[in-house]
Amino acid sequence: MITDQQRRSLLADGYLGVPDLFTPGEVAEVAQRLDGLFDRFADLPRASVLDLGGTGGEFGAEVPEILYPSSLSPGLRRTAVFQRGRALARRVLGAGTWFRFDHSIRKPPGCGYETVWHQDRVHKRSGLPERRLTIWIPTGSVGQEDGCMRYVPRSHLRGVLPHEPVPDRRGALRTVGVADTDAVDVPLPLGGAAMHLFETVHSAHSNSGESTRTAWILQFTQPRTVLPTATLLHRAIYFGRTRAWRGKGTG
Ligand SMILES: O=C(O)CCC(=O)C(=O)O
């Protein structure tokens, strides 16, 4: 768990790196489940997969992303990593905090794509006032060369900033005018996690290393509000499209 001082630092700077949130065994359980999904990436429901690489690249080979992996492999929500992540989010955001979304992004060795600068709030569908905490959990140690996260300190205090589409990148929206020199890298050992707030400007490095970089990313929100019709509809369509796959014994 995090200390009072770490909580204050997260709320003041908009991000926090914690080196020792989980044991290697706890992370290994998550890694095994995510690997099982990435191994079957081509067979996953269309609604569950994206590729964040170049528009001309081979889908699934560049920067594969799985949406709601814990719906496809429900055992993920029973892991110590999920339980502790949720407890941490409640400690940071307070009562009424609930799990909103998870995804997993993989960068194969030599992946030349950085995750572009952005604020998560820009991708928000509803106009509801809410606070969110993202917990980014790598399945191995990560340094700059492997694709660790980086943050612009205190950028969450600047409101929603202008974003622009990125030519030749699938679906990417980039915060306008961020300089790399504004940023702080957050390398992590195995068992560590990086976390940030909804408005914090962040990105992740490309993976010039020799290991596959996989991260499980959990988003928690507060307060728990009635979801708007469009969001409910979107979720219903997603869960409808993935129902058949969920029955295939992924635990
Ligand atoms: O894992 C990555 O490359 C980036 C993750 C990220 O930016 C996010 O979850 O908002």
What would your notes on this structure say?
This protein has about 250 residues and is an alpha+beta fold. The protein has one domain: Jelly Rolls (Sandwich). About 25% of the residues lie in helices and about 25% in strands. The protein has 5 helices and 13 strands. Strands 1-11-6-13-4-3-2 form a 7-stranded antiparallel β-sheet. The longest helix has 18 residues, at about 230-245. The mean pLDDT is about 90. Bound molecules: 2-oxoglutaric acid (AKG).
What attributes does this structure have?
Jelly Rolls, dioxygenase, binds 2-oxoglutaric acid, alpha+beta, 25% strand, 251 residues, 4-stranded antiparallel beta sheet, 7-stranded antiparallel beta sheet, Phytyl_CoA_dOase-like, Phytanoyl-CoA dioxygenase (PhyH)
Give a concise summary.
This is Phytanoyl-CoA dioxygenase (PhyH). By secondary structure, this protein is an alpha+beta fold. It has 5 helices and 13 strands.
- What's the quaternary structure here? single chain
Rg calculated over all Cα atoms: 17 Å
Spans of at least 5 consecutive residues whose pLDDT stays below 50 are none
Task: Provide a count of the helices.
Answer: 5
Ligands, deduplicated: 2-oxoglutaric acid
Keywords: Dioxygenase, Oxidoreductase
GO molecular function: dioxygenase activity
Protein name: Phytanoyl-CoA dioxygenase (PhyH)
Pfam family, one: PhyH
